[in-house]
Structures are given as C-alpha cells and as structure tokens.
Amino acid sequence: MTTVRIRLLWHKQAQFAGYLLAEQLGLARRHGIEIVCEGLDFSQKHVAAVLSGATQMAVASPAHILESRDPAALRYVLAIQQESPLVYPVRRADGIESIRDLAGRKVGVWPGHEDLELRWMLKRAGVAPGAVTRVELPDTVGPFLVGELASAQMTNYHELHQVEERLGPDSIRIFSGKDSGSSLLKDGLAVSARFVEENPTAVQAVVDAVLEGWSIAFKEPDRAIAACLAARPDIREAEHRGQLADIRALAMTGATLTHGLGYPDPRHVTRAAEAIVAVEGRTVPHDGILDLRFWQAAPVAFRSKEWN
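Below the sequence we write its predicted structure tokens.
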C-alpha cells in the first residue's frame, strides 16, 4: 500500500468533506493507495509542503502555485469550488463605503501568499500600493471583532458566519473580488510534478477517489457530515452542515455546470497570472502547470454535470 499525503488548506472541516470521505472510506485502496489528509501547518503551508517533499499533494489554488518558489515543479489537476469564497467585511459604523475607503487603514490577511486577490481589488479600485497596511494573522476574525482591523480576509462559509453571529449581519458591509471582477479561485488540488511523472497511476487513483468522495458528499450529505464529525467532533453538526451547503453552492456553478464536477478550468490559471502581472508587474510562465489528463480519465459517474 502506497501512502499519498494531502496537505489541506485549513484545519479539517466540511470545507474538505470530499477529501475526508476519500480518506475515511478508503476509496483509493482498491488501487493500492492510502490517502492521508493533513490539516494546516502554518510553518509549511499547502504548496510549500509539496515542494519540500513533506507531502505529495495539497489543496491549493492556481494563485498559490504561481506565487510559489517553483511553479514549474507543481501541477494543477482538480478543482471542486468554481468561484472565490473570499469576502472582506467592514463595520458600517466605521463609515467605510467602498474598498477605496480602506486607504490608511489595517486589513488582516492570512500569512503565506494569501492576499493576491485583495491586492488586485485595491489596484483596480485605484488605491495606491502601500496605502493599506496588510497585517498577517493566522486568526483574522478575533482582531476584526475587537476593532484592531478595519477589515479582514475571510471565507463566506466559515469566518464570515462567526462575524455575523457576533456582530449581526446588519452591522457589517461586505466587499468581494466579484465587485470589481478581481476574484481569484481559492480551491484546487496541486500535485508534485515529479510525483505526476513517476506515479501517474497513483495520481489518477487519488483524483478518482476525491471526485468520488465529493460526489458522495453532495448526493448523500448525511454521510459527509458523519465524516466531518469523525474528523472534527469539536465543531457543531449544524456548523458542518451549513459549511457543506456553502461549499456546494461554490461548486455548483461555472465550469461544473458546463464541464462537470472537479474540472480544473484553465481560466482560473490565466486569471491568477493576470493578477500577478497587474499587481506585481511580473510575468509568471504557466504553460504546463495545468494537467487535465487525470480529470478527463476519471469515471464519468464521479464528475457528472447532473446535480440539480
């Protein structure tokens, strides 16, 4: 049995229900593969873990790949969500009417190349570089709640709900990349290019298992919630269910509807490259980053477009 480790983008929760099902149900074992999902490690996040050899795969976005120290050593093979979940709430009492009003203020972002979308939003809004102080924090919710930050990077399926519960939804205004056409995909599966070359059958087995896991999660949510509760019994069942519903909404749009579940849309790679040019003024070669072979070879039943 060959072990394949997947470094998750955050701690285990319903955000990764399909991965957790693939792991717990042993969906790749029939091909001699044992999937092990690893929670976030801030000392070596997602693609950094793959590049170091600590894991073979990571849940990561095209932007994470292109902003890494060695994009050519990574491959983008799968995406479940098809639009950005990122939001940037502000308190209405602070008088912030538009993204431009963040100039001169502090905004919390997660450490480790997580703020490309925000920087692109600010660029498109005409906010001068450096006008907004980006503060790297593992926890962007706490400092925002106590007023240390004018805004903070959050997801619409997790941190935003915490803020709405504490402050009330009517007390905040929410900005997103969609407001200015600068949203960037957050989700994806990144794989070591060397592992792809040396173990294509293992990569295919994992892709198949992950797609099967997500198809189960969306068709049989009770099984997904059981897997999430087994992985994170400290999170309330209602929270897991709400998060899974939010993830489903992010997945059942865009390329999922035109191509099928898990399709790694080339447009998301192109947009990440476009954002880097706009924000940093540099071009990142990205030919060869996208590898569609494994999604195309996956069983049709696991990537069906018939979800509604």
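The mean pLDDT is 95.
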